[in-house]
Each structure stands twice: as structure tokens, then as C-alpha cells.
Amino acid sequence: MKKVQFYVMADNHYFSKKLWVNGPPIEGRSHTDQVLLKESPEINEAFFKLIENDTETDTVVIIGDLINCGERLCHDEFTDRLRRLQEKGKRVLVLTATHDYNGCGEDENEFVATGYGEKDTYRVQCTKRCELDEIYRPFGRDNADSRYEMSYSINVDGYRFILLNDDGNGHTDCGLDDKGNEWLENELIKAKQNGEPVLLFTHHPVITPYPVYEAVAPTEMYGRHPILKEMLMKHDAKVVFTGHTHMHTIRKITDGNKELFDIGSTSVVSAYGKIRKVTLENGFADITTVDLPEKIDGIPGGSKQIADSCFGGYYRRLIDTALEDYDAFIKLGHGLIPADKAKKYRLVIKPALKVFSSVNMSFAGKIGKKFSGLQNAECKEHKNEKLIDVIFVIVDRLFQGDAPYTPDTYEHKVIRGALLKGDKIMKTLGISLSKYVNGIDSLWTLAEPFVHNTRTGCDREIKIKITDEVTYEKD
Which domains, from first to last, does the chain contain? Predict the structure, then answer.
């Protein structure tokens, strides 16, 4: 089999520039969202150009939440760009997901196709779920070897790509039904018989990115994921690519003999936009990360401007602004904190943020010193390190992957010690965390994956052996 390369994109959340003007409505939405709607056309275009210019890679797989909230105009513009990719010789394989339609009855979801005017939002033409198949059939399904509803299976240069539609809406099961699972198992069996190594793609996570995620948001997982995991391991499928969480993570489960990897990709248009590039060669899937280009047409500050303006960068700027210019804080917080509430509680908010911003890590270290194993010399060395800085580093890494503080770091020791002290206090008071968060029995168990990468050691790249039968043959 020849060497095969392809890209994986997730959560493009494309939003047409024809559907908004600058004003409080779009700013309010921007301040409460982890994705950059206003800049989404430019960011998507930057990645599409990168893919277009890669002469060694002719396939891209896009795994759902293609647009904002079912706006038909956004689908029209997005598919126009996909057709241009095809015209450049790229194979484009697409799945849709929950953000791609507005439904009713059994297809009900909470999304509303919306435009943003100077003073108010307004309804725009929406897309029904039943329309998605016709819109996106040219991007994968028309050339599929087998289909089940909007899921499909296709041979890509000797490999079997299986794309599972799971656009459930939180009200119904977001995964294959019994007949769909029968179809999938037959596809896995046929692929093995034909010597086709299998790679799977779906929108929702199959393996939870963090233990607390599945505990508090079970409907945000792939529906019937225990059945899917068991089936994939039974038939020696090793890799499934997922999105939805906007978290760039690599997770693994094993039964002692076989392993299954869930390769999660962050949103293309998040503050930390990334895509995956995969090379299939010599029986391995070599999976790497491609970051948002530094220079982006239409965005003067490029990727740095995006990181500073969205999510973690925005919240840090919001806190700093509250301490320096409270009136500017009220304006900057539009959509997140109602102006009347910000004014009313000024004498509470500003002092609270001032105290929070001034807390040193040494204070947190003293709380759990008995449990942390910290030495006095370490505490002195980090006496000026602020707790707020550590928190924002963790928040930044939550979505871009690779939790920042390994067990040998001062920060890890401080956080671990403080939370173990908290666990002891809760035990003394007879408080059980598992009563509130199913499957989580301690504060440290809940927090550790956010502090230190307890998954595969690296969320950016991994090399996975997917078969013993593939050898590389030069063209």
C-alpha cells in the first residue's frame, strides 16, 4: 500500500459576514463564546489555503459543526469553498452535526438561525436536518461504498474510512441505532476480510476527554459509546477521530491486550485553532498537529490577536480592566455581565477581583503543605508567583491540549497539596463529592487531568500501530 496523508478538521463554525454588523448584539455573543464567529471566515480560509497548497496531501475529513447554528446562507458559502477545494484536486469527506441544522419534533434542538443587527438579533433562513444530506452528498456520500442514513464507508487509497453521523441533540441518542450498529459491524468485518486498515470519524467524543466531562455531561458523548468502544476493540480498529469538545486531546483505553485511541481536535475557530495531519505508512498512523498560521489575511495581528482577544485572553483582559478602569470593564463585559449588575455590585466586584489577583501561590502552598511535600526553598523561589497566572495557564491548556504542570513542578505540588487538604476536610465533614459528580470521589481526582497530562503524555502528536499487514511501497 502506498503512503497516504490526510487532514482532519473539527468544529469549523463558519459564520457569514453578511449576517452581522458591529454592535452590542454580536459583541455580546462574542464575549460569551469560546469560538470566534466574526473571524471565522478568515480563520477557515487560512486553513483551507494551507490544505490547498499541500501538494503531498489530497484528502481532508471535516467532522461536524460546520457552521454556526443552521443558517442556510452559511451552508451555501461553506459548500462553495469546499467545491473550490475539490476543483484543486482535493478529496473532501464531510460529516454534519448538531450546529448544522434547526429542527422540530424528533429533530428538535436548541439552536436558532440568527443574524446580528446594530441593536437586535433577527431570524434568518434556517436549515432542516432532512436537508443536510442533499447539501453535503457531494462531499463523501456520493462516492461512498456503503451508507447507513447519513453515515458512510469509503475506500481511501486502500484504507477504510468510516464516518459515523451522530448529530443527536441532547434529547435523543446521538449515535447509531441497532440497525446502524449492525451496518457498522458488517463494514468492520468486510474491511478486515479485504485487508483494509480502518480509521473512524465521528463528531462527539467516544472516550471522555476528562473524567468529569462524562460525569456531568453524558449527553455530550457519542451515544452508546460503550457499545461502540467494545465493537471497535473486538474488530481491531485502533483509532477514532472526534471533535465537539473543542479540546485538543489524545485519549486511550485498553483491555490489557488491545488499545483504542480517541484523537480529539479543538475547534478550527477557537482561540487555539488547530487541525490534525495524519500520515499512514508502514502499518502506523503518524498523527501530528498543525497550528493556526501566524499570518491570516484580514486579521492584522494574526493568530496572536486571536489568542489575546478570545476566551482566556479575553477573561484575563476583563479582570485587568476592572482593576484599572471600571467603566471600561462594564463596556468590555457586555454580554457576559449585565451593565446594571456590574454598576450595582461595583463595590463588591472590584475589591474581590483585586484580592483574587494578588493571591500568591505561596498562600495556596501553605494550605496543603502537609500533603504537598514542598520544601521551604521551593516556596521562597516562587514567592512572587500569582495564583491567577497559574489558573490562566491551566485554562489556556484546557482547549489546546497538554496540561502544563508535571508532578515535579512547584505548581503541581501546590495544587495537589491544597486539594488533598480539601479532600480531608470534606471527609471530616462527611461530604461525598461522588454524590454530586458521579464517579469522582476526590477533588484531586477531578482536577489532576487539567493540571498534568494523565492521558497519553502528549496531546499534539502520537504514532499508533494500526495493523501488522501494511508495508510501504514507493510509487
Answer: 4-299 (3.60.21.10), 302-451 (no CATH)
